[in-house]
Amino acid sequence: MHRLSFIIPLFCVAFWGTTAHAFEPRILSRSDWGADESLLLTTAEEPKSDSTRVPTDEGNAIAERVKQCQEAQQLYPQEFRIQSTARENARGEKLRWPQSYSPGVRMLVVHHTALAIRNDPRSPVERVRALYQYHAETLSWGDIGYHYLIDEDGTIYEGRAGGDNVVGGHAYCANVGTIGVALLGNFEVEEPSQIQILSLQWLLRHLADHYNLDPEKSITFHGESKDVIVGHRDVVHTACPGYFLAGVLNQIRLHVATRNISERVTFPPPMSSGYMDRADERRQERLLSLNRQPTQPTLSPLSETELTVRPGGQVQASVIFRAGDSAIQNRARIASVVRSNARIGIWQQFGDQNLRVRTDLLLPRMVYASEVETIRLRFQAPTVPGTYSVDIGPVTFLLVADGRRTRSPTSEPVPMTSTETDRINTPTPGTRRLSSSVSSASLASSTSSPLIRIRLSTRETGSASCSAYDLTSLKTLYRGTVICTMVEGKAALINEVDLEDYLAGLSEEPDTEPYVKQRAFAIAARSYAAFYLDGGHRKFPGMPYDGNDSPARFQAYGGIVFERDNAKWLRAVRSTAGQVITKDGQIVKAAYFSSDDGRTRSPAENGWKNFPFAEVFSSKPDPWCTGLSMAGHGVGMSGCGAKAQAKEGKSAEQILQYYYPGTTVLELGIRN
Asked: Would you say 536 and 3 are in contact if contact means Cβ atoms under 8 Å apart?
């Protein structure tokens, strides 16, 4: 769809004004908000028509709507006419939802997403991505139905791909010739923010100008007189766009028509009590209307289920919970817990605390539809040797208590590996977790993440004095501490930061890449950095730093700015917290690169002598990259191959096993 080419500013001017141009919102393109463009593609065209794609805010009475739509198509066939249809993108790849184009745009339709945002811990961009995932994947549409979305901060997001006049999927039987704009929130129970309304008015005015629409005039649509700017309920029977937004549409129309788009609106008084939020119920109805049974919550192991531990000792494990098609509330009981011996101790990580598990496993936070939560557990075996079992819902863990008894067994668990619960959108069952000690000087000797010192060479100007740098400003761009010191006669900037926070700011795998690929690279990048934290493997011997923010010297590092703008990458880092690639108890220097011509290169081919575990990096066929040119050294994991394998459905662990055969993924610093 068009990218509002007439809009120059891409920043947010967050103030209220009295003139028509005092407010201009921030615009995020699909690439800016991290839309996974692979969801647009398929090997077989989806059978559904544009008229059947209806967003999540619809109610029931599906059969009656189908009948009415069929009648409208017979009576007003010209209003359903498509000018053209693109079934492939510019690269010749087949589109899952062909991009059809209307001869023109006649009406602007306002929606709400019907999902309340108050008490929702997710950031706005995370909620936009989740909605995109739901439309494109869960409902099998192949894209998001709305043309634009507006969050509570007034930021505008580009929705449906395709350009000007592309047909969306926002209003059943009214998609041709219309543009759908959805505001994040459920405006049956909450008011839009005033800045959200300002952005809506601004966008509607520019869309009216762009498509040559007069908001003061009415049109005839499907035989009825309609305003140019309407709510979803004006074209189909629905509560959308909700009580509060529908109640100010007349004010919005007036402001847009008179170009007073910086004027606030006055919301109607709250409805009387008794409203019930039916978002989950409508979601269930929609799935049933698509001849698909709703997906039920599932629980599966994320670690090995047979755990060896000393009698009286403790061992860690993890399970992964998927919410299915409905949201699950915080502290909900998600699985019963049955022990074979009453002396088995069980704790689960709950925020930053360890919660003793009695008869039920609890959900540590609210999980939304199709979302996944990793739950970390710790078991304490009885002091008598033997094999014990713990059933957590459908998952059975076996505790093999063997060896010398632990002295003075404690009744409280040692700290969990991470104090932050993983929150990921795509599960990767089979991730291996370290559940026993690793005897290696290379592995961290404590449960906390080690510190790493990174030279910020890309920030340096070659000055011979530290006074040339504004350290106060620099400290706002990086986590940890930033200092300036003299190195070889020149001022050097060094960021000392927790290894996990460093990984979060690593700017090598932006959110335009598949999430599974990001997870694979997070593990490899952590392994590469952790390898050089060993005193015997110094990358820069004799220097007061471990790495460099230049990709030519070490790894590309962007700090807080990259972390903030790439939430999916941040989830990839957090979901793999502490995981490194190992062989024989040693961290592997997991080299990786961008692309090759169909095969990887061995260290010897690159002239790298005495490369550790060279057998792991032997040349391998890389058919996913055939026809591409070499970009990088060619040793280890290729970006092109990892991306293609992720799109094929491979897990991060499977990708790593292909490029680093014979290795094992373990966690830094986990000990019994």
From this structure: no
Q: How far apart are CA 356 and CA 375, in angstroms?
A: 13
DSSP helix/strand/coil, 429: coil
Largest CA distance in the chain: 85
Exposure class string for 333-365: b at 16+ Cβ within 10 A, else e: ebbebebeeeebbbbbbbeeebbebeeebbbbe
Quick one: which of 603, 638, 606, 605 has its CA closest to 624? Answer: 638
Give dist(CA 505, CA 527) in Å, integer: 15
What stretch(es) of the chain map to CATH 3.40.80.10?
48-289
Based on its alpha-carbon atoms, the radius of gyration of the chain, rounded to whole angstroms, reads 28
Portions of the chain given CATH number 2.60.40.10: 298-424
Measured torsion, CA atoms of residues 470, 471, 477, 480, in degrees rounded to the nearest 10:
180
pLDDT digits (tens, 9 = 90+) for 479-538: 888 888 888 788 899 998 889 999 999 999 999 999 999 999 999 999 999 999 887 788
Judge whether 56 and 113 are in contact, CB under 8 Å: yes
48-289 homologous superfamily: Peptidoglycan recognition protein-like (3.40.80.10)
Which residue has 């791909």 as its token pair?
161
- Look up residue 45 and give its DSSP letter: -
Distance CA 242, CA 282 (A): 14
Contact 33, 125 (CB under 8 A): yes
539 falls in which pLDDT band (50, 70, 90)?
confident
Fold held by 298-424? Immunoglobulin-like (2.60.40)
Backbone phi and psi for residue 507, each to the nearest 5 degrees, phi listed first: -100, 45
The answer to whether the CB of 320 falls within 8 A of the CB of 372 is yes
Question: Cβ of 532: how many Cβ atoms within 10 Å?
Answer: 17
CB-based contacts of 511: which residues, under 8 Å, 6+ apart?
34, 518, 565, 566, 567, 568, 569
**DSSP assignments along 524-572, one per residue:** HHHHHHHHTTSGGG-SSTTSS-SEES-TTTS--B-THHHHHH-HHHHHH
| Mutual angle of helices 515-531 and 639-647, in 10-degree steps | 140
Q: Output the average pLDDT for the chain.
A: 81
Classify strands 547-548 and 586-587 as parallel, antiparallel or unpaired. Answer: unpaired
pLDDT exceeds cutoff 70 at 434: no
Three-state DSSP state, 523: helix
Which pair of tokens denotes residue 356?
Answer: 């003793």
What is the 3 state secondary structure string of 148-216?
EEECCCCCEEECCCCCCCECCCCCCCCCCCEEEEEECCCCCCCCCCHHHHHHHHHHHHHHHHHCCCCCC
Q: What is 535-546 written as a DSSP string?
A: GGG-SSTTSS-S
